[in-house]
Design brief:
Blueprint (H helix, E strand, L loop, with lengths): L1 H14 L3 H26 L2 H42 L8 E5 L11 E4 L12 E4 L7 E9 L4 E5 L6 E6 L2 E9 L2 E7 L9 E4 L5 E10 L6 E7 L8 E5 L2
Antiparallel strand pairs: 1-12, 2-5, 3-4, 3-12, 4-5, 6-7, 6-9, 7-8, 8-11, 9-10, 10-11
């Protein structure tokens, strides 16, 4: 059918001396103009422009939301740091020393060590005790300075993996074995009156508290019980207190 139409147009154009061809071209131009006009009408109708405006607005709102979330996160960090510093200032009422920031991850080291931002020029010496927690309840020794540089010191955690520490729980002397992550384990006589929540002290740490009992397990027939000890606060503290000599 299309072939017949083309032949008919060709014959008509020949007989008309080219008039049919001119007419066809004019018709095609008219149809193109009409289509373009219709397209402009659709685009100018507001549908696509409104959609583009909404996409731009959504992008702007997402960017604002990201900025607000960042500001909230920064505010929470500053609030946490201020609270930590406020609590640590109470140590000065009982112990002579200084406050220092933790500048490396407490949990990342497989050796149970971390760095603090204070060193020999600040009066820090190897053997100084490092404390954290709420001083209102006495605070807890979480480590001891191993070595110092001018402005940086390396601290070994009390409960570093496989680190042993003499301790006393409810009047019972035990040997704690560090497990890392602020946790340790000990064996105690089966009849020892040790319960969850009991404070754990160490004569090697000046008789200060180093943790609390997190749980007690005993198997039938065993002459001893397993005592699990932990630091009773998150190890995400940003500051610690170093007791001076």
């Amino acid at each position: 059918m299309a072939t017949v139409f083309v032949i008919a147009v060709f014959v008509a154009d020949t007989l008309s001396g080219g008039s049919a061809r001119a007419f066809a071209r004019a018709g095609a131009a008219y149809m193109w103009a009409t289509g373009a006009s219709a397209g402009e009408t659709v685009f100018d109708s507001g549908f696509f422009s409104t959609r583009r405006a909404l996409e731009k607005e959504n992008k702007s709102l997402r960017e604002e939301l990201t900025q607000l979330q960042t500001r909230v996160a920064v505010f929470d960090i500053l609030k946490s740091e201020n609270e930590s510093l406020r609590l640590l200032t109470r140590f000065t009422e009982r112990e002579r020393g200084i406050t220092a920031p933790i500048i490396s991850s407490f949990r990342s080291s497989p050796y149970g060590t971390f760095l603090i931002g204070a060193g020999s020029e600040d009066g820090i010496r190897a053997g100084n005790l490092v404390m954290a927690g709420d001083p209102q309840f006495g605070g807890f020794v979480i480590g001891r300075v191993e070595n110092t540089d001018a402005r940086i010191s390396l601290v070994k955690a009390v409960f570093a993996p496989n680190e042993t520490t003499d301790a006393v729980i409810s009047g019972i002397s035990v040997m704690l074995l560090g497990r890392g992550g602020g946790q340790a384990r000990a064996e105690a006589p089966r009849d020892a009156e040790i319960k969850t929540g009991d404070a754990v002290f160490s004569p090697l740490m000046g008789g200060k508290a180093i943790g609390v009992v997190g749980g007690v397990e005993v198997d039938k027939g065993d002459a001893s019980e397993r005592v699990y000890v932990m630091v009773p606060f998150s190890l995400t503290s940003r500051f610690v207190y170093i007791i001076g000599e």
